[in-house]
Amino acid sequence: xxxxxxxxxxxxxxxxxxxxxxxxxxxxxxxxxxxxxxxxxxxxxxxxxxxxxxxxxxxxxxxxxxxxxxxxxxxxxxxxxxxxxxxxxxxxxxxxxxxxxxxxxxxxxxxxxxxxxxxxxxxxxxxxxxxxxxxxxxxxxxxxxxxxxxxxxxxxxxxxxxxxxxxxxxxxxxxxxxxxxxxxxxxxxxxxxxxxxxxxxxxxxxxxxxxxxxxxxxxxxxxxxxxxxxxxxxxxxxxxxxxxxxxxxxxxxxxxxxxxxxxxxxxxxxxxxxxxxxxxxxxx
Length: 284
What we know:
By secondary structure, the protein is mostly beta strands. Helix content is 8%, strand content 50%. The chain contains two helices and 20 strands. The longest helix has 12 residues, at 192-203. The protein starts with 16 loop residues before the first strand and ends with a strand. The mean pLDDT is 97.
């Protein structure tokens, strides 16, 4: 049976949702063939004046390509961990995924989860490694740049990982960023939909679109009754809104056995495993 919560190795801070108010704008970004995925994504946002943001990845061809999947932890240092690194031959084509582009150790870095088809035709998924992944074919994706906030990798005592968390930065004078937005990180064991609904209510946001969305849940429960019992997952948000009817979250995921699932999450029954970072764009 799927557990209702997972005990993490460190103490849980009282603040269960980290939020930074920002401004932002959506625009297309061209990912250039032959370039490292990290660098071409960074250049695409920088060309519009943004140091970071989120990207929606669809039909992106990658080679070389490296990734890991979720795995059970072999020590008490973590509640779950990563698999060995996989490096499939030939071109891998992303079905869909989400990227958070921010900073780690003073340099650009991304956190990306996706589903894809490898050369053998199998549908797989996981966590893409920025150091070893390049774009195989030039393509255009949608990005949402952030002004006044950036995701930065910080040591998280609760999970004992270094994780992306939103931090405030000085807004850039004159930058075209007309949309009100919030950079968010949800902590372990918080209900995904419920936390977003409560945050929007507290901020007076009646309608919002989720931009990006990378993290993990404790298995998954879908509105059509399907359940992923294996607790260690890697998840991306394919589409999401929060409005008067609540949060509607369409996701893709892979669990630690390599099984993939896609669908709309059931409200109130999908707690976060390690983290979930995303951008909320206010539409009202």
